[in-house]
Specification:
Helix 3 packs parallel to helix 4. The radius of gyration is 21 Å and the shape is globular. The strands form three sheets. It has a seven-stranded mixed beta sheet, sandwiched between helices. A three-stranded antiparallel beta sheet has the order 9-10-12. It contains eleven helices and twelve strands. The model has no long low-confidence stretch (mean pLDDT about 95). The chain has about 375 residues and is an alpha/beta fold. It folds into two domains: about 130 residues, Aspartate Aminotransferase, domain 1; about 240 residues, 3-Layer(aba) Sandwich (Aspartate Aminotransferase, domain 2), CATH 3.40.640.
């Protein structure tokens, strides 16, 4: 049975053009970028080119890009690395942040800091007033994700950053889910640091970046041989870095077309889901063009995902790492979603290769599966 992949917010298939530029650096161009011979020079030059490609996608200078092993490391680097140069104070984060922001921020609270979470509306949005209220206490850092990985809700990071900077706070945004789906401009967001990841934009896994204001006082969390200008020790993963750069170049070239394609499919999918009685989470907010997070009344989300997987459709019941012991998404809890509805959550995240035919087939599969589940419940009753 052919697979229809609809879980692109979790990861994306590597683009063949990205793989093609990576392969030479896994074969003949295997030099260590710190070596002074020709093979090492070739690797250094390839890293420099990739750094420029990443910077170009987000409107930054190549010298602002620090390569990491992924978004999780980049988030830990900025939160812990900035805190290391400051006296304990308050760090403010959104209530719907990814755990790789939430956990390091909470870790600071065990070392004299105060960690405060900003509440979100039923649409998943943080208000300027909520931030203003939080910053009545002295605040050293603010971290708010640009786009939520489950709902796709886009925060007004520029507005929040402006307010925080007026109070002298360092501002960071996790832009992992936004990259390649909407225009991302480092300067326009008014942040001091921004997290990116390769495998969300048809690049390789295990590579990410932290884009920083060059005036930011940041202490390395991985001490080593001084790579990445001393911010991140360890021999560079040249092939992955090259792949990340190539993926960024492709993402920039197709951004407008990909956005239009995703919006068209999303609208088609949501129209069909609503006709089936589905509730769309975050529907009242501006969202990523590819993301549909929905629930059908009295249908358990995980059961629906498993049934659809058996029919050849790969979706998810949200972000597994964002659920607590109750099995309910912490994002939906923060949005005030009733538990019985939250248990039904299913995320469909579209990609550039998905088609309207696949969306039609998915809707038919959901309709058939839901009817079968409802019949089984009726028989059991």
């Amino acid at each position: 049975m052919p697979l229809t992949y609809l879980d692109h917010n979790a990861t994306t298939p590597i683009d063949e053009r990205v793989l093609a530029v990576m392969l030479p650096f896994l074969r003949e161009h295997y030099g260590n970028a710190s070596s002074r011979h020709e093979l090492g020079t070739r690797s250094r030059q390839a890293i420099a080119q990739a750094r420029a490609q990443v910077a170009e996608l987000v409107g930054a200078h190549p010298s602002q890009v620090i390569f990491t092993s992924g978004g999780t490391e980049a988030n830990n680097l900025v939160i812990k690395g900035v805190a290391a140069s400051l006296a304990p104070s308050q760090i403010v984060i959104g209530a719907t942040e990814h755990l790789c922001v939430m956990h390091p921020a909470q870790a600071l609270a065990r070392n004299g800091w105060q960690c405060r979470q900003l509440p979100v509306s039923s649409a998943g949005l943080i208000s300027a007033q909520a931030l203003t209220d939080a910053m009545r206490e002295p605040t050293a850092m603010l971290s708010v994700m640009l786009a939520n990985n489950e709902t796709g809700v886009i925060q007004d990071v520029a507005q929040l950053a402006h307010l925080a900077r007026e109070q002298g706070a360092i501002v960071h945004t996790d832009a992992v889910q936004a990259l390649g789906k909407i225009a991302v401009d480092f300067a326009a967001l008014e942040v001091h640091a921004m997290t990116l990841s390769g495998h969300k934009i048809n690049g390789p896994k295990g590579i990410g970046a932290l884009v920083v204001d060059k005036r930011l006082d940041l202490q390395a969390q991985l001490a080593g041989g001084g790579q990445e200008r001393g911010f991140r020790g360890g021999t560079e993963n040249v092939a992955a870095i090259v792949g990340f750069g190539a993926a960024c170049e492709l993402a920039k070239a197709r951004l407008a077309a990909a956005h239009t394609h995703a919006i068209t499919l999303r609208q088609h999918l949501e129209t069909g889901l609503i006709a089936l009685g589905a509730y769309i989470f975050g529907a009242d907010a501006t969202r990523l063009p590819n993301t549909v997070y929905f629930a059908l009344p009295r249908i358990h989300g995980e059961a629906l995902v498993i049934a659809l997987d058996n029919l050849g459709f790969a979706l998810s019941s949200g972000a597994a790492c964002s659920s607590n012991h109750s099995g309910i998404s912490t994002t939906l809890m923060a949005m005030g979603v009733a538990p019985e509805l939250a248990h039904g959550a299913v995320r469909c995240s579209l990609g550039i290769t998905n088609t309207a035919i696949e969306v039609d087939a998915l809707l038919q599969a959901i309709r058939t599966t839901v009817e079968r589940m409802q019949l089984m419940k009726a028989v059991a009753a």
